[in-house]
Amino acid sequence: KELHDLDREWLAASPFCLIATSADDGTCDVSPKGDPAGFTKIFDSTTIAIPERAGNRRVDGFTNILSNPHVGLIYFLPGRGDTLRINGRARIVREAPFFDEMVVKGNRPQLALLVEIEEIFHHCSKAFLRSQLWKPETWNPP
Question: What does the alpha-carbon distance between residue 39 and residue 15 come to, in Å, rounded to a whole number?
Answer without folding.
Answer: 7
